[in-house]
Amino acid sequence: MTPLSEKKLFLFDIDGTIAVGNTLFEGTRPLLDYIRSVGGRAYYITNNSTWSNADYVRKFRDVFGLETDESQFVTSGYMTQRFLRQYHATDKIYVLGTSSYIAQLRQSGLRVTESPEEDVKCAVAAYDSELTYQKLVDICQLLSVKDIPFYGTNPDLCCPIDFGFIPDCGAICQMITASTGKKPRYLGKPSPEVVTLCLEDSGFSAAQTLVVGDRLYTDIACGINADVDTCALYTGETSPEEIALSEYKPTYAFADVQALLEACLNR
Predict the structure, then answer these.
(1) Given CB 3.0 to 4.6 Å as the disulfide criterion, which of 1, 8, 99, 212 pairs with 208?
(2) 220 neighbors 232 (Cβ within 8 angstroms)
(3) Per residue in 75-126, pLDDT tens?
(4) Cα separation of 61 and 52, whole Å?
């Protein structure tokens, strides 16, 4: 465990950690100011694949009043895109996802289809706020009649929203698995590669890094898998009782982002 006073690279989950919906949690802005004041840098590692990096830059500026750049965001959608370009660059890929995410994949040069065509080589399920039953039928058809790889952008079962939670990619994939028997390989958090990319881009060391999130099996597991310190906040899905029962134990745990800031200042 490295003291919080030595942390310079903060890797924040977004939904349920520093914000929910269009509401930025109290303490987030001064914590970001503190990180800048000590010569550090913040990155945002999110399993929400419905938004592109450019979308997040606009939201942070227009809704939260925070200036960021695209390099600060590492989404499960980007991690999936990166993986597909490496292993399925010339293949036809079926994607269950939002129109925005499908457009993003196509713009990167990938051969994406939304139909269960015969020459599809793999199937991808993302967090899809535009989900229809026909999309579920199509991906189940592909996975049932063809022996092709099945990928999911992220294993999150639910996504925080103003009134509570709604189904996320993991829940969508569970429906598909229950119908086809096929289990996906997830490409976002808790993959340690998410942290590795941030370390390489920022130049900070693992000892200087802190992963901050509200979910144990994605955020905290991601940090543990990458061998960096972690911090759980009780503003989303995690509670002290859940930590006590979980195999994923955070290095630090605080009530909210304001409490994390106070701990950083009390060095």
Answers:
(1) 8
(2) yes
(3) 999 999 999 999 999 999 999 999 989 998 999 999 999 999 989 999 999 9
(4) 14
